[in-house]
Amino acid sequence: MDGLDFGDSFARLAWADPGGRPAAVGPAQPATVRRTPGGGLRAERAEGAFSARARLLGRPGPEGEAAVGCVLAELVRQTVEAGRPHPGEVLLGVPAYGTGEATLVRAVEAANLRVAQTLPEPVAVLLHYAGVRDGVRSTVLVHDQGATGLRLTLLEVAGDDRTVTVVDSARAPIGGDQWDGLLAAELRLRYGLPATAVPESALRRAAEQLRLALGSADQAELQLGEQLLFLDRATLAAVTRPLREQAAAAADALLLRTGERGWEPPSSVLLAGGLGAAPEAGELLGPLGLLVRQEQPELAVARGLALATAFGMLWIEHAPAGPAPRRRSAWTPEPPPLPFEDPEPHQLLVEETKLNQPPVEDPEPHRPPVDDPEPLEALLKAPVPPPSPVREAPTVRPESVEEPPFAPPTPVEEPPSPAEEDPPLPPKAPPPSPAVEEEPSTALYPVPVTHLDALRRGDRLLVRWAWPAQSREARVGWQVDGPTPAGVAGSGELRCSRRGYEHDGGLTLPVGRGAVDLTVWAYAPAPAEPAAQSALRVEAEPPEVRYEVVLPKGPRAWTSRAGLHGWTARVVFTAEADCRLPPLRVVHGLGRDRPTRAGEGTVLHELPAQELTAGTPFTLRLAVPATRGPSWLVCLPVAPEDRSVVLRPLALHRLRVT
After folding, report:
1. Percent of the chain's residues with pLDDT above 70
2. 258 is a domain residue
3. Which of 440, 594, 612, 617 places its Cα 20 to 30 Å from the Cα of 476?
């Protein structure tokens, strides 16, 4: 699986090599497109070009999807030419906040790329800087500044359970385009360039080239027409200082807002984006008391997405709008120590009682009473009490037992004479057997897991969960509803080790495309209260049907019958599993925009429901009328709410017939 970074200005594909290091192909692909004289789209940075992602998220529709497909087609072509196989599944970087994630995913999948998972772009930057480490809790500020603007995101990282919380985010229109505008104004003023001789767009492109050249040199020059332009790093810093002050003020405002909510201040700033590579990008962030990290910021998102494909379990949470949860942190002062408590408070009472009583003379407590035999004789005549049971724990090493200080020696008992012998005592109960120290138990108890989740990848499920403390093994059971493919068990149970789970990033189960019921138990040394299993039901995945429009070439392509002049087209449907294709309408639309409903074009044919066999193409032939200008041929379901199958075109550009 590859990581796809589709930004406002550039797009990149990255992946992890066998050694786990991120890799990418050559320079980034421009993510801006312009219209060609023939009405098509071309991905390049030129005058009149617009951002494909900004157009898609700002005005969702066929134009934005076509622009995204044009950029991705060129990016895939460059990747394949470099020797990399065609990317099948991608991990897509998406904004931390916003509602455009689903729109972006649909546009990428319409370009014949399957989105296996999405990841917020600030979290990818965090992985690029190795900000998620086991046992480390921290707060960082992601400073992503590209060509179109600045995005600030505050993240809280809990490395002990691999959880990243997106605390807050802010955006500001302070990007490379604004830098280039100020530099262009400075160059025009310095060299006296009239607007009639040097257009503003050409001067902005020259300013951008000079700015990029200063990333690795102290000064740069560029020939623009008959004028030689010169720019040094000091001039760049002086001209762009107002914009950099605005960026620092935006970061300060975000930290002030999150601090008022109770969140901890960040310890470092992670620079990302093409503008983050400029030496002056983080100059004004240092006075905020933050450590600025600047390590290949232009590749931070792409490299982070590549690392995320093999990172394993990572939980992403979004903080609520209210105050921060109360938690203990490294910045919280230690509580005051508790008052000292005497472990033997009764001794103080004894001492106080002795102080209130008159002193009692103790006749030589350290010597045995040998001078006066009366106490000894009375002691011998006294009845001997039965010994109390004593539990003796077995000891491995003999330890010296010290007698308490000032204790009189124990008198030695002598056997009584027969005349003075007391009547026999009742039989004594046998002393209990000595207590044996129990060895620690090695029994394991089933306990439930948390954060149980499953992700479909074709006929397989990637099952993930959060392991309880001290758990090293889990039991996973599954039950598939309906038939399963050959070689796939309809039900079963297996054990999964935690070491293998963390190495693979989860547990992969071949279950087919039907609905699945999952149950997961983890084994821990202590039982859970109450004991309950973790269950999850994964709904069935509808079969996918792809179609493409084929126009034959040569004399046979033209048809003329019953007064209709045009081309004979073939629409080929292919299903990945046996399914029933719902009724469809084949719509012919005119213009630059691809039709998305029947009312935006002419219905050429209505196809009734068809039974499709997996891997067997079904071909529909129909005549397409001749038109002037661009036209499209698309297939739309009669009932848009019918979700029995997933209908996708093989490639968007093949839907355009003229």
Report:
1. 76
2. yes
3. 440
pLDDT digits (tens, 9 = 90+) for 500-524: 888 787 888 888 878 899 999 888 8
Phi, psi of 175 (to 5 degrees): -135, -165
Contact residues for 444 (Cβ-Cβ < 8 A; gap 6+): 473, 523, 524, 525
- Decide if 602 contacts 587 (C-beta within 8 A): yes
In this predicted model, what pLDDT tens digit does every residue of 383-434 receive, in sequence order?
555 554 544 445 444 444 444 554 555 554 555 554 445 555 555 555 554 5
Q: What are phi and psi of 56, to 5 degrees?
A: -65, -45
Boundary residue ending a domain (283, 309, 335) = 309
CA distances (Å), 344 to each of 340, 341, 347, 348, 513, in order? 12, 9, 6, 8, 70
The pair of structure tokens assigned to 466 is 């959060």
Same domain as 140, residue 66: no
| Confidence (pTM) | 0.53
Q: Are 614 and 575 in contact (CB under 8 A)?
A: yes
Residue 614 vs residues 8, 546, 611: alpha-carbon distances, Å: 39, 11, 10
Strands 507-510, 460-466: pairing is antiparallel
Residue found under tokens 């740069």: 220
User: What does the block give as tokens for 351?
Assistant: 């001492």
Q: Which strand (E) or helix (H) includes residue 580?
A: strand 579-581
Look at residue 583 in the predicted model and tell me its pLDDT. 92
- Which long-range contacts (C-beta less than 8 Å, at least 24 apart) are formed by 97-106? 97/166, 97/169, 97/318, 98/57, 100/56, 100/57, 100/60, 103/56, 103/57, 103/60, 103/64, 104/6, 104/53, 104/56, 104/57, 104/68, 106/65
CB neighbours of 525 closer than 8 A, spacing ≥ 6?
441, 443, 444, 445, 470
- Average pLDDT of the segment spanning 63-89: 83
User: In terms of C-beta density within 10 A (0-12 exposed, 13-18 middle, 19 or more buried), how is residue 639 classed?
Assistant: exposed
User: Domain containing 555 — which CATH number?
Assistant: 2.60.40
Look up residue 409 and give its two tokens.
């020696």
pLDDT at 309: 76
Find the distance separating the first CA and the last CA of the chain, reported in whole Å.
35
Average pLDDT for 346-368: 51
Please tell me which residue, 270 or 433, carries the higher pLDDT value: 270
Tokens representing residue 266 in the block? 């960040």
The packing angle between helices 62-81 and 101-110, to 10°, is 60
Band of residue 375 on the pLDDT scale cut at 50, 70, 90: low
607, 470: one domain: no
Can you tell me whether residue 279 is helix, strand or coil?
A: coil
172 and 113, same domain (yes or no): no
Query: Which pairing describes strands 315-318 and 163-172: parallel, antiparallel, or unpaired?
Result: parallel
Nearest-angstrom CA–CA distance, 521 and 531: 10
Domain region containing 254: 131-294
DSSP state of 160: T
**In 10 A of CB 289, how many CB atoms?**
10
8-state DSSP, 656: B
Residue with tokens 């839907």, as numbered in its chain: 655
Per-residue pLDDT, 182: 87
Among residues 73, 70, 171, 76, which one has the least CA distance to residue 122? 171
Amino acid 211 reads R
